[in-house]
Amino acid sequence: MTRKQTAFILALAFAMTSLPAGCDDEGTSETKLRLELYRPPADYPNPFENVSYLRVKATGEAFGERETFIEYRALGGGGELTSVPYSRGVQITVEGIAQQCVPRNDHQMTQQPLDEEDPDNGDDPDNGDDPDNGDDPDNGDDPDNGDDPDNGDDPGDPAPPAAGCDQPGACDIEGGPCHWVTSLVSRGRTGLFNIRRGTDRRMVTVMMMRTGSFAPTTNPGRATTQMSTGRVGHSTTLLSDGRVLIVGGATLQDDSADLSDPEMIANVFDTAEIFDPVTNTFDALDLQGSPMRMGTRRAFHQAALLRDPGSGTDIVAIFGGYSLVNNLPTPMSSVELFHLESRAFYDGLPPMQHPRAYHTATPITADNQVLLVGGRGEGGSTTWELWDLSRGAVVHGGLGSERYNHTATIIPDTGIGSDLVFLMGGENPRGVLDNFEIYNVSERLLYGSRHWMLTPTSDQPERRTSRTLHTATWVPDHQFLYLVGGFSDLNKSTAVDQLGALDIGCIRNLAPEQEFSDCWRQNVPFRLQNPRGAHTTTKLPGNTLFIAGGCADMSAATCDTRLPEVLYQDDVEIVHDDGRRETRREVKLGAAAEMMLRPSVLHRALLLESNHVLLLGGVEKQDGVSTVLSHAALFNPL
Question: Which distant-in-sequence residues (6+ apart) come within 8 Å of 112 by Cβ?
């Protein structure tokens, strides 16, 4: 077998066995799909190095999961996936597997081990986004995992001799001293697509990456791609077809101190572009071949994905933000709409009641409305409004605390009969906030700011923590809202290293106007290895949080927090004094595998359908010089 081949074509024949309900396309009974694998440029980790074979899986709404194993070599005739029905929501996953013959009970592997029999159950500390689960430290606990010819990997076996497993056939001896251990080395996935009866033969490309690695966005020709211009304060919206709309943004003065200070804005953009994860390319043109442009230049605005009431297609509402008026950054109250079908922006929509920038915009999807809260601007920082596509503000009110640079997280019905939006922290000219407010979606009411953000300890159960430019992420399986990082001072010179965890399940027995101090968890006493604010936190499959970028001190000459961190859950076995064994799920925090390609602050991050994390733009601050980035990178979770 050769490991030098880094790009090749697999011919996959999809033969129909049944047609899913609702798919009544007429035509041929077989679709052929050509799958092209490619890798990042040579300067980045090679996803095919040390790979013994490839495992190719197909999933779809109509058939669940089918897979095939393909030996890693320069394929001439290709491989086949047979008996795969036509389906909507098809996704192809390709995994590079390393296979090693090792002594029994020697479980030291440098790569992540596989547990091939255990489907992903969401309890995977590595992020759980691959069907093999990946959280089995020795891969030898299953009765038959398909990789071990002798299946004699009982942890109670006597210690084997340490030598001889590198000899040919050593692992083919049943009951012998050696056995096969496999590990996941690399992975690539397509987005979701449909295969219908009568579909012509088509090409599908997959970018393979080492697990736990970063790479620049790379097209199938192995050329790196990036945004058309450097952007900070831009918005990124994941569209229903898997593409990403990138709108507006700004450049900053080279010597910017507080990178979030609007006085540092140098130029504001009216342009937009669309990232296509199928080809990893950026397209900034409309249907006529001209640049896509808004009616107003905007930065530090907000965007919300809605549905066109008539066609049901994607529309994106763009709210407020800063524009330059007489060369001064000025908050706006206007709203524009982007139609994906026409690739054009439209103005003339009902404006917000107040100008807003650094605000939040939370779609209330059931009603196609958007909750707009706070933000810099006259009247904006002290108010909220529920905005409707045709009527503008239908409900509005005052905030308990003036706030901007806060977070807004919608949490589904927690047992009180309504979705809730948690408005956490932020700042105003008087200081950084240590409180939060709650918006009740059903009642259209806001409950004031006498709820405190806590990071309790045994000796300080009521310890408050102020945060601005932090993140707040809802993890449903934990029933926790996690607060990560942020700054505790207006100068943005002191980043917060504590994580806060609000137990949303706890509030089911509390009225929204009651104190929530008892619902902040003391059993999540984590501290970030690198205190950071103005970072991103992305929820990955498997209840994992990926924390990337940011800055410990914006007043410093250099911001460099390139080492990401990962919050994950793990099952730990507890042995009691009476001999009883109990498996307890614990949440842990650790460093990610590799450094980011560029240190960035105020960048944007999204989870794509491929389960790659896309990181876009932001600011790199080195030796007193602030550079706004056009850089785009992908992270492939473990």
Answer: 126, 134, 183, 184, 211, 212, 638
- 322 within 8 A of 346, measured Cβ to Cβ: no
pTM: 0.84
Signed CA dihedral, 214, 220, 224, 230: sign only: negative
CA gap 283, 628 in Å, rounded: 20
Q: What is the dihedral of CA 183, 187, 192, 196, to 10 degrees?
A: -80
Determine the Cα–Cα distance for residues 81 and 91; give it in Å rounded to an integer.
Answer: 13
**CA-CA distances (angstroms) from residue 8 to 69, 74, 141, 489, 561?**
16, 7, 34, 53, 37
**Dihedral over alpha carbons 329, 332, 336, 340 (to 10 degrees):** 40
Find out whether 280 and 633 touch, Cβ atoms under 8 Å.
no
What is the DSSP code (8-state) at residue 266? Answer: E
State CA 588 to chain mean position distance. 18
Whole-number Å distance between alpha carbons of 29 and 80: 16
Structure-token pair, residue 586: 């614990």
φ and ψ at 533, to 5 degrees? -135, 170
Q: For residue range 473-523, what is the model confidence (pLDDT) as tens digits?
A: 999 888 899 999 999 999 999 999 989 999 888 877 776 566 777 788 876
